[in-house]
Specification:
alpha/beta, 5-stranded mixed β-sheet, 8 strands
Amino acid sequence: MGMKFYGVRRGRTTGVFDSWDACRKQVYKFPDAEYKSFSTREEALAFASGSTPTLQQPTQRPEASSDSATEIWVDGSCFPQKDGSLRIGWGILIKQAGKEIFRDKGNDIPLEAIAHRNVAGEILGILKSLKWCKAHGINKVTLYFDYQGLESWATGTWRAKLPFTQLYAQTVKASGISIQWVKVKAHSGDPENDIVDQLAKEGAKGQNVY
């Protein structure tokens, strides 16, 4: 996967940043922040300076607002038990314009997904989030995740070889929701990551045991 460049048009400091962490410091909790990821530095610079190409101008306004409008964090958790069984859970957090609008947790992991352990929880979290967004008319999201396969299976960069990951990739594509994938470091002290980590643990400690 190629490098991403993050253009910040409105934030603590505007300009182009080479990593999400650097970009996030400029936009996190900044009122009406405007930022976007690009595959080239030139595009990011054009966005940051406000001189986006004319072709993008008609959709520029809704694109910028929806980019920062709906953000999703997901996580999965797995607790092996002494008897060899597994407790697997998922957690999701959805924010709109920086405010929490939905959170959920659970452990309804399909039997064919158990071998994926905590990744199964993360996959369920994404599928549940997209289903919720679809039901609420949201068609563009920024999704924060920590396992590379979640993006790579969905985009086709990795070939999904098992039935559960194949179903996951097909469901994401069929959702019709445009996803901006942002990989974050697990357990890095990010407040939203900590919330979904805790939700996934609580979900895993529910009733279902495999």
